[in-house]
Every structure is written in C-alpha cells, then in structure tokens.
Queue: 4 jobs
Job 1
Amino acid sequence: MNGPRIELISSGSELLNGGTVNRHAQALGAALDAEGYTLSRDTTIGDQAEEIRDALSEALDRAEVVVFSGGLGPTGDDLTRGVVAEMLGCGVVMHEPSRLRIVERYRFRRKPLNNLVEQHALVVEQAEVLDNAAGLAPGELLRIGGAVLFLLPGPPSEFQAILTDHVMPFLRKRWPCSPVRTIKFHVAGLGESDLLARMHEAKFPFEEINPSFRASPGQVLLTLTHPDEARLTHAGELVQSLLTVRELVALSHDTVASVVADLLTGSGQTLAVAESCTGGGLGEQLTALPGSSRFFVGGVIAYANAVKESLLDVPAELLADQGAVSGPVAAAMAVGVRTRLGADWGVSITGVAGPGGGTDDKPVGLVYIGVAGPEGSVVREIRFGGSRSSIRNFAMRAALNLLREHLVGGCVSMRGRVE
C-alpha cells in the first residue's frame, strides 16, 4: 500500500436510512487513487455521540489519517465538534474569520442572519481551521497522538471543496507519493468473461499487470495499473488491438458523451436529437457538458405520434404501418430532426421502456436508435433488460455510441442500413 493508512468515517442518520446517498467514499477514493494513495476503510455511522466517539477512537488507533464527514452544522444532531473536543479535553470556540465570512455571505445575498447560522463557525479549540469555499462550516485539522484527523462538512460539494483545497495538498506535502499509472477502457457489447477470454487468447501479461473489471449497465470498465509507463503502454496497446470501434467506447476518464462532444467540436459539426422513450434525457446529458453550445443545436421530445408527424415529418402512413417503435420510424425521426434543426447529424431514440406497453412482437426493452448524417441514415435494433430507468439509460448510452462509431468512421456505408 502506498503512503499512510487512510480511513473515512461518514456520520449521519440520513446516510443509513436511505434518505441521502453517501458520495463521500467515491469522492475521497477517487482523489486518493489518482495520486497513488489508498482508502483503507469506509465506515458509516449515525448521529449518536457514543457512535461518533467509538468510531473515531478505533480509526485513530488504526490509521495515520482519518477523514470524518458530517455533524458540523448548528442543529441538535450535529455533535462532531463536541465529541472531538471532549476527547481532547478542550473546548469549542467561535472562529471569528469564519463567522465574518458567513456574515458577509448573507449580506451579499440579502438574506436575514440569525445566531443559529453563525454557529457554523464554531470549531474545536485545538483545530487548524480550513476555509470552506463552497459553504458555511469550515473544515478542521487536528493532530491526535500520531494520527491526523480531518473534520469535513457533510454536503458533497463542501466535502469535495475542502478535500481538493486542503486535504490532498496536506497529504502530498506530508507523504509524497508517486502516482500509480492507469489506463481505463470503457467497453460496450462485451461481458467481463468475453473480454477476459480475448485477453487470455492474446497472451496478455497477467503476471505483470493485474487488470480490474467493473461492470455497469451496458458497459464494462477495464482498468490496467502499473508503475512502469512503458509496460503499461504496451499492455494497453494489446488490449486496444482486441477491441473493435463499436466495442471501445472511451479511454481514461472520458465518457461516451464527452468523446462525441470532442469529435463533433473538433470537426466543426453539429448534432440534433429526437427522443421518444428517453424523454429528453439524451439532450440533458449533452447540455451538461461544458461548451455544448459549440456542437449541440437542440432536440425534440416526440412522445406522441402527432408530434413525430408535425415536428419531425414522420409520415402518418409509416407510423400506422410500422408503429412508433420500429426501425423505419427511428430512421425518419433522425432524418427529420437533422433536417428541421439544420444539423450535420441527427440521432433518434424510440422504444418500449416499460414496465407496461410491451407485446410479443415488441416487448419491453426493445429500442431502435437512428443516426442520420451527410451520407444517409442507419438504424440499430437493441433489446435491453432491467427497469424502466435502466432501459432509458442503456438507450441513451447506445445512441451516443452508435453516433460515435460513425463519427470515427466505423461504417463504410450508412445508406438505409439496419443493424
């Protein structure tokens, strides 16, 4: 293991009862991993003082660094400061610079200030105070015996801000660590066992590099890790040679949406989308990307057949003959949105997301994706399993991947082809 032993404790009853998703381990683990450190343990506890005290005592005995999140607010269940102060035999005091920053923040926003809000600025008397650029309660750094304890606010944006601004710089200075080099492959259309079988057949150097696999809906993330850049690059090139254009969706920390955005922006081309069963989700993914206005023209949510006819010029006869969930209609939607919005590329999604509405001929999970470009249109039929939400997410990812394939030249001719 590289560097110090690092543990995370997240406090909050809402994390245990399902009221809030705990994102702290993901944020901390990713930040540590990127710089060669390892998160050794992740513990989630409630708001009781005894639980906080016991969890802290145990973690501080095991680890050199403990990151504790939550319980720094002004309400009755925010007990972290008091418990830590009691453990150290000191008090809790008002940190005047933090209080003044809170006052100024409220003045700027023209919001009334009360004493309860100012209690965010309370800190353990022996703490080194860490500015919070994203919220009210500052972070705190304490040295307890041979260990370092960080107290961070619970809200994810504030946790991330102090992690980035203070925790990681402290670790770099106190325990310099060489980052472990990694290559990540986002692979679609192959299961873990299929990908592993190809790697065995190609004599991948498993004795040198131990690959890790993480399956997610419709995709597998393969991660290769090694300190030697040359060996890692060689192994990465071998894996890349085993994957087709359709299968290799993205490398490193890219997503299929960001890859499509880069391809469109780099070539000066534009995109419009027509969505039925995904209800605007694809457009939302694209516009969430910084700089999306450079390539994304707009979209049409064509849920009803009448909208498909009036806004996308899908012939009524085609809808009556083939049905809304069909290859020809998907192609017509893609062509229609491309033409109507004046884009270089049009992408369409139509399908049966469920849980109802399926038939023997068109079951739940059946999705047609259309892509229309300068040389014609292509449609892909895919059948997904899972919940309504999963099917919609699968469909959006598959639509972007089909477009990506054609943007990088994965098809010789697209004219009227159904896959």
Note: The chain has 15 helices and 18 strands.
Job 2
Amino acid sequence: MLFPGQGSHSVGMGRDLALESSAAREVFQQVDDALGFSLSKLMWDGPEEKLVLTEHAQPAIMACSMAVLAMLREELGADPVDQAHILLGHSLGEYSAYCASGSLDIAKTALLLQTRGQAMQVAVAPDQGAMAAILGLDTALIEQACIEASSSGVVVLANDNVEGQAVISGARAAVEEASEILSQKGAKRVVPLNVSAPFHSPLMQHATGVMAKALEQSNFLDPKRPVLCNVDVVSVTDRAMAVDCLTRQVEGRVRWRESIAWLQNNDVSHCVELGHGKVITSMVRRPMKDAVCVSIQGKKDLDQLEGVF
C-alpha cells in the first residue's frame, strides 16, 4: 500500500471524493477541525499559491490519502490495511502510512504535518535553498557532482526515486553549480524545482529538532502493519524505531529506488496507491513490470481492486 508525497497536490484535490463518500467527508472535517481552519476549502477552491505552501500542502496530501482509505473501508466493509504486506509512503507519505497503520489518528497526523511544513519552511532563509530534478544519470555521478560543487555550499542527493530520476537539494549556489556539472556530464534534463526550501538536506537541521520534539509528544503507537522506512529501507514495527526514522527523514535521503527493490525482493505482487494523483504508481510500475500497480482516487477506481483485496 503506497502513499504519495509533496508534488501530488493541486486545486480541486479530494472534492469529488468528498461528494461521493460520507466517510471521506468525515476525514476532511477531522483535518479542518484539527488545524482550526478549512483546509478542505483551500484544497477544493484554492488559491493555488496558498495551497502550495508546505504547511498546507503536506496535511492536504495526507488528508486525501486518508479520505480514500476511509472510502475503501466503507465500500469494502473491511480494512484493506489488514491485508497489506507493507505500507510505504514517499517523504511526507510516510506519515500517511503510519496514520493508516494506526500509529497516529488523523487529527494528530494533520498537526504533525503542519508543524513539519512550517519547520521546513523556516529552516532556511527565503531564496537561500534550492532543489533540482536530475534525469538520465546514474546516482554515483550525481553524488560526485555534489562533492565537486560543495565548495559553494551544501548540496546532496535528496531523493533517489527510480533509475535515471533523482533530486538534489541544498544551498542555492551549490545546487546551481552541481546542476551545471551534471548538464555537462550528460544529464537528459536538469529541472529546477519550484519548492520553498531545500528538503531532505542537512540545511533542514532546525526542522529535525522541531520534529523530534513533536513526535516524542505525539502519543505515537506501534503500527499494526509494518511500514517501510524511507531513510533506512527497513521494515518498522515498533514506535521507537518509527519515531527515529521520521525524525531523521527530514534531513535524510528518500531512498525510493531501494524501497522498490525491497518490494521486489520480498515478492510483493500488488501495489495500491491511495491519494490524489498517480505519481507514485508511475514510479513503481516502471521497475516492477510484473506487479499489478493501481492508483485509487475515488469510487470510479474500485474496479481496479478486483483480485487485490
């Protein structure tokens, strides 16, 4: 069971789902109540420039995932999480995974993600950080370029998504220098990302401290189903390990390519993405050619689950 991360949000997200499912509407209401304002109205009506703020986008993406899960529980008359071999989320999606697994309730998850978004936003002064997507190069070349550009500041491989698709993050000058080096090394494309901070880099140290405290105070429970840790690519089944992984995740690399390899090595045959968009499904489907990979966003997608649950 897969949960998307930042970048999967857009104005209108979750609106159709709320109209067709009372269980989904309840999830959106719980998130609104927890945050003290109508995030759902922002999700459905915009404006986009406000929705894309990290403190709003992160709980919004989680809310859509949990609303889809609530709809599935209502329609199936059972909890599909109970049949999942492992739960896996991309970056903030790991919080959605723990919420689905019963470690956190929806309200607490929304508050944690709001805190995470705010902490990541203020960790670096505006315009001082940057991220860039690198397409068509091996990770070893990307890491070498980051080392070569380090005289200009911190820059690291932040997201190792799939073969030939990665993201670097760090100080703006260093990211720009590394991007130029990688273009010269033959990258198919180097795409500066429209983000508010250099996520998953050592520049997020302040946010790590904030999240360590917030997670320790969150009444986090052991997950009822294992969750695959982004930074270590290990199956997590207890509270202490989960809190440690989520704390280190703020600065740590999202090892998504290795996570997909873990799924393959453990004979996972079906992957179901819950939430807005199909980004995660597309990233998993490419390397897992023999697996059934589906994206569930609403009732219209239920027929794709035949033979899965």
Note: The chain has a mean pLDDT of 96.
Job 3
Amino acid sequence: MAEQPATFAPPSPGISPVNLSDCIEDLLHFTLSTYLQVPPLLDLGFSKDYCSRLLQLDEADPISSANRDCGGVPAYPLYKPLARAVERSIKSGSLGRERRSIDLIPVDESVKAREKEWNELIADKGSEILNMLEGVDFELHVQEPYFSQLRDGRKTVEGRCGGNYSRITPGAVLLFNKCLLFQVQHVNRYSSFYEMLKVEGLSDILPGVETVEEGVQIYRKFYTEEKETASGVFAIYVSRLASQPYISLGNLLSGLGYDGVGGLLGMMHTAGTDSNALPPPRSAIIASSKKPHHPNVKGCILTNGARALAKHVNKSSEGWWGYFSGSDSNKNRIASEVINHLVDDCCWMNIHFIKPHECVFEVRVHEGYGARWSADGTEFIGFLEPYMEGGYSKGWRH
C-alpha cells in the first residue's frame, strides 16, 4: 500500500542510488524494533530495556535530535544521534569517535585496545550494508498493517496503480520502508483493482480483508477511479531476500556491544563506568538544575543550579564561571546559561560509580569544567572544576 492518505496517489517508486544517510535512521529503528518484538527476528545481545531506551522519546524536549548532531548531550530518541554516528563510522571505516581526553582523567585502556577490532567490524559490516543498498533498483513505502505483513511473509503481492510502476520488472530489487529488501518474481497487469483482487485473491495482497469490495475501498483511499482507469493496475509478486541490511547492522551493533555503542553516543569509559547505562534525557538534567533549592521556604526562588554556582564562581582565577551577582532571578538566569553551555558543548560524558553518590552522570567541556547529576538526571549534584594535582587539598581553587 502507498504511504499517502486521502485521495492522493502515492509518489512514483524511488530509484537508485539509495543513500545511506537517507535510510540509516529508519534502518536502525527497524533493527532495534525487531529485537524487541516477540519473537525477535534477531538477537542483538543487549537487554530489552537498553534497546527500549534507545527508542524512547523525550516528550518534554520538543527539539528534534536531528538538530543536535554536533556534540553535547545527545537528544532523545537516542537512536537518531546513534544512527548518524553509525553512518559516519561506516563512511570512514572506523569507529569515528573523536576521543577527547580530559587532563588527569585516565581512559580505560581495555576499551581503547578494542577499537582496532571495532574498526574492522565496522569496515566489514558497513561494506555489506553499502553493497546491499547499491543493489536496490526501486524504493517503495508500505503503510501498516501491510508492512508488518510483508515482513512476516503473510503478504507476498503488492498492488499499485500503473504509471511509473510499469518500470518494475521481474528480478528488480525493491527496498521497502528503507529497511527491508525484496526481489520481484513477476508482475501481472489488470485494468482495475477489482479485477486484480478477483483474479489474484485477497489473502496474498490484503491479508485480513474479507471482501473484494472492501479491498477496492482501501485502494480508493490512495488512487482515484480516474487514475486507476487511465493507468491500469499492477500486481507485483515479491519474495524477501536472505541478505538484509538490518541483519548486517544488527551484527555490527552486537559486535560493538555496550562499550562500542556507548562510544558512538559520545560516552567515555573510565574506572567505575557503568557500560550498560545511557545518557539521561536533556529535559531531565536541565529541569533538575532549575528546581528550587529550598522548596519549602516561602519566597525563596534560588534554584539548585544557582546555589551550586555560588560555591564555584570564585574558584576559577580566570573567571570561567562568569560574573555572578544581582537578584536571585538574575543568579538563576546565569546558572541556567552555564548549564545550557555544559549540556550543549560538552565533549566528555560518563556514567560511573563514585562515592557518596553511587552512580552519576558527568559531563565536561574541553577546558575541564563540568557538572554531575544522578544517573537518571533527576537530581542535580553540582558543578565541577577541572581535575588538578592536589585539587582536593586546594579546595579545587586554581
């Protein structure tokens, strides 16, 4: 079935070449979703919760992650920035992570040693995906529930109104919904959808539809009767190919494991890192810093972020934290600007265990300044000075 509702005909089939950048998000979403379905189509080796988190939306953050592909804490849904990182890695043939170390914070050498293995995996599986996409002749989009029926093998015939679909011939490779490959077995032409459904039957074209009349009405949502009469109708028989890009992508992800996927999302790995953790939603970490520091004190509007900034503003001799003065409202504004800078421009992120806070989410910018939250981002812990020799004994003044 076509992807556009109402009385508009679907667009002509897309033709090759298929660009990785145009389909990587849909392909990754499908790969993760197939692992979560019952039974799963493939085993990624991750926990179900981990994959669900990658697909999770952040309804409190209205800005799409597509607009935040240039660093900082990745926006939800995490699969989108992950998809772009996978794309860059495939095109470069390596993990593609710009590793930015922070002075005096040692990186886990065991993870660093695995990058050669990861690079070989990316080059291998990435080449498989690119070769499959290069072999595509046409792209088609199918709405639900018909796409799921194609995926599960219950639907084997795709009905389309003529026009440019006449270019689709036996042997052609079709990419459905940017993620599933099928090959055309043969094509039958009819004068109308009614004739097609009467001759071909309903079970392979529109599984679950009980009458030909009902089937015609489904197609009428996408094609006018005039279009049908003028162009004719095609019944395109397809079979699913054994080699699929989502399988290669799944093998790539499972080979990278938690550490590699975390690296693609910009996470660092040090002693005490929780490899299974993912960065919390941006909305949560920003909101927790804006909570009132004394919620039960009437008239007190100073936020957690502003209270924490008051402790740090005089520690930097270079005045990195800025000029902190004025009313509580002004201090809240300044603290909010600092938080936004750290969240948007951090080059170092980690979720690790540290006393007395147990597991924390930590970010730092390239100068070494940063902040910490609880692992889920709901509790703002405070700001951080750059690491330095004897920092604790010096009160982190520098």
Note: The first helix runs from residue 20 to 36.
Job 4
Amino acid sequence: ETFACTRTRHAMKFHIESYVRKDGSFAARSIKAYSNQGAYASHAHALVANAVNGFRMMYPVGAIKGEAYTVYTNMATAGAMRAYGIPQIGFALEAHVDDIAKQTGLDPLKLRTQNMMKLGYVDPMTTITCHSTGLEECIQRGEEYLSYTKKRQEYAKQTGDIRKGVGMAIFCYKTGVYPISLETSACRMVLNQDGSLQMQIGATEIGQGADTVFSMMAAQTIGVTVDKIHMVSKQDTDVTPYDTGAYASRQTYVSGMAVKKTAESFRKKLLEYAGFMLKKDPWDLDIKENYIVHTNKDERLLSVADVAIESCYSLSNSTHISAEESHHCTDNTYSFGACFTEVEVDIPMCQVKILDIINIHDSGKIINRQTATGQVHGGMSMGLGYGLYEHLKFDPKTGRMLNDNLLDYKLMTAIDTPELHADFVETDDPTGPYGNKSLGEPPTIPVAPAIRNAVLNATGVAINAAPLHPERMFNAFTEAQLIK
C-alpha cells in the first residue's frame, strides 16, 4: 500500500538544445520538460516549473526558451520529494554538458566554469540574486582530490571488459521558497531560575539536526554555553510560535534568523538587568561563557544564574526575562556544489562499482560540521540509489505497479555503499543569519549525473536515463556493440 498509494518522485523527460560558440560559451539554450504526475495532482505544475527554473539558473544565457508540461497518467501519484525537481533536471543538464564536451572536444571543467552562474547573477524571473559563491573552488577541490583531468584522459583510451571512468557534475539550489511563497518564522526564549533558558520555535526537527543548530546559534549570540539551551521540541501552535514548515532547505536560513533576532533581544534584556544589579551601563557589559563581564575585560562580575535568581525574586525589581521575535524573510540565495566520482564498469555483467566519490558543497558558513557532514552522506546515499538502483516498474497498459515490495524494489544496502567523502567550501552569505545557506536537499542532486558521466568516460556510451541498472546498461551496451 505504501508503494502504490503514497507519493513518488516525478519521472521527467527533457529535450535540451544548446548552441555553443567556438570559444565554448553558450549562445542560446532551450528545453522542453514533461513531468509524469500520475493520477492525481500534487505539486504538479510547481515542481516541473522549478526544474525548468533550475535549467535557466545553472548556466545563465540571454537567449533561452523553456516549455514545461504536466502529464496525468494512470500511474502512482508523484509529489514533492528531496530537492523538488532539481535531481531530475540536474541529471539531464549535467549529462548534456558532458555530451557537449565530448562532441566538441572541450574540457568539461572549463566548459562549466566558463558558463556557470557567477557572483552577482540576478535571475530575470524570480529576482533571486547570487550573493555568494564558492562553486569554482568546489570544482578545483574535486579535480585535485580525484586527479580528474589526468584520469579522464587516461581512461578514454581503454579497451576490454572491465573499464574505469571518472565523472563529475555541479548544481545550484535555492534556499527556501521566497519570492514564490511566504517565508516566516518566530522564536521565544525564557530565562530559567538556574541560568539556563528554554527556547521554543515552530520549526520542526525531523532528524535533520535543526534543534542542535538552533541551540548553537542561540548560545553563540547570547554568550552562554550550548548546554544552557533547552529546546522545547514540541512544534504545536498551541504552545510554540508559528513557522511555515520543514521544507525547501530553509530552516537554518529562515528560522535561524528568527533565533538570532530573539537571542539578540534576550541578550539585551539580560544585560539591562545585570546593569541594574551592578549599577553599571549595560553597554559596558558583555556575556561570556555564562558570566557577565566588562566589555573589554575578562573579569567575571556575575554569573547568568545570579541574574536569573535576582530577576525572579527581587523584592524591588522582579522581572521575568524573556524575548520573542519573528522574521519575515524577503530574500533568497543559492548554494552550490559538485560531485566527483571514479567508477569501474563491468561491461558483460552490466554493473557499476563506485571506487571513490566526493561531494564538495558551498553552503555558506557551516554551523555544525558533524551534522553537515551527516546531511551530505545521507544525500549522497539517496543519490546513489537514484542513480544506480531504485526504479518503479509499471504495467504500461494498466498502470499497476510491478515491484511494490522490498524484494523486487532494489535498494542499495550497507554492503553496496561505498565510502562517502564530503568537503565544504565556506563562504559568508550576507543574507543568512550567520552566513549560512541551504544544505539539507542539495547533496542528492549531483551524484547520479556524476556516475552517468563516469560511465560515459569509461565506455564512450551515453546513457540518458536514471537509474543505470543492469537492464538499461545492457540495452545501451548492446546498441553500442560493446556486447555482442
């Protein structure tokens, strides 16, 4: 029932054309996109439109044409899934760019760096601006890590049944949904009597590590240690302030700004009361590691716990210190990244083995490197499944799902998973609360096209659909006469 009756990722078909000058620059580009919605509407037009937007943004050019169509079929209903249409267009677009490089003899890295989005780009339709980018450095690090250029030249000359190949792909991804839709969040902080504080926020912790990052943000802004922040993980509008939701890789960016604004307000009130206790100007005071100190000195004057007790029980000035602020986000920004992989292709067996793989991300300032790395590893695992294994099969006449169980639906297991590598190019985005940008969804995007391009390098065969499962590779290799 879960397979047949819940939503899947949209299957899409693309027809892409690019007009390339002799120097490698794109003169014009066009796309037609067809999205299989299934039997019922669920993010239908919005999702295929977002895919076409991604086509426009990654490689901006003045002369561009796009058409997007939603097709209703008698198959399982498709809906919003991690990265909202960008893995689909990312696969097609990055495969297309490698095909251009192969046909023209251009270097695929130079072709990308020459044409990709640059700092200051303003999207003509959404007005989303590229405020920061580390994409070129992401590409450089990936190339150095894998020795991509050297191996690509070596592997292009191979013969035999077992061949190696290297491939790469890049991506850009927005942070939240503004200006297409509303982005808003609010946060509340209350000082406890022991000097710790409760933090309530409507942003839902769904396993992505949001509560951890919010606690770190609050602690750093106020001047207390992280253990003093007690997150009230009950996202209920009867209890917590409002937040628009956990989607679009927007929480650290949008909800994080609500946390920052609330923490700044809370800190100001805490210092004002400390100034009352010490008979000093609050501007001469600071908070460091749970203590009130002189602004330019490390001398500890009071603990935050002392202020908490006094503010609650003072006979002359009992004040319950709390703060609540909201943030209406009216900005957006792009995160970037690249995936580089080395594969081994067994042509007779039609199998791909990942020998090495790395994702390098520009997600602005990394708040918590451990959780960020976990996000990248999780996204890469999903990308490997998308690129090599997971495929729903349907009876073309009835629309009935043919592999609606975990025996016939092939998943990548721990045995199949290669060692995953992640790296970060840190930029400081001026629109993020702490210079940060989206990270939750992007790691999924570049993995599948990087694998496809590695298979192209190894075999010379362009496989223009995902996943690259044995049946699909057998048909492609047979057509190319690698299998006879």
Note: Residues 213 and 450 are 30 Å apart (CA to CA).
